[in-house]
Design a protein that fits this description.
- By secondary structure, this protein is an alpha+beta fold.
- It has a domain at about 5-60.
- The protein is about 25% helix and about 20% strand.
- Strands 1-3-2-4 form a four-stranded antiparallel beta sheet.
- The radius of gyration is 12 Å and the shape is globular.
Length: about 80
């Protein structure tokens, strides 16, 4: 099962929904045509989001930014 969910909502709303449902977020990326690409920390978390927010799921393929500049850093991440 994929950890990725594309949602028709703002980054703030997606974070709020994940926080409310105690779903860890690995990455959150704004999509050029609107909405966000959410990568959950686990497949179980992604499935929880899919079940609760099925009306907000973007169906089909989505176009992403090519350079990654629209991607939000994850708070507290201590990358290399």
């Amino acid at each position: 099962m994929s950890r990725v969910v594309n949602l028709k909502m703002s980054e703030a709303e997606a974070r709020h929904q994940c926080d409310t449902r105690q779903v860890g977020v690995s990455a959150l990326e704004r999509l050029p045509e609107g909405g966000v690409r959410l990568v959950c920390m686990s497949a179980e978390g992604a499935e929880k989001i899919r079940k609760r927010l099925k009306a907000n799921i973007i169906k089909g393929d989505v176009r992403r930014t090519s350079n990654g500049r629209e991607r939000s850093p994850i708070e507290g991440w201590q990358g290399d």
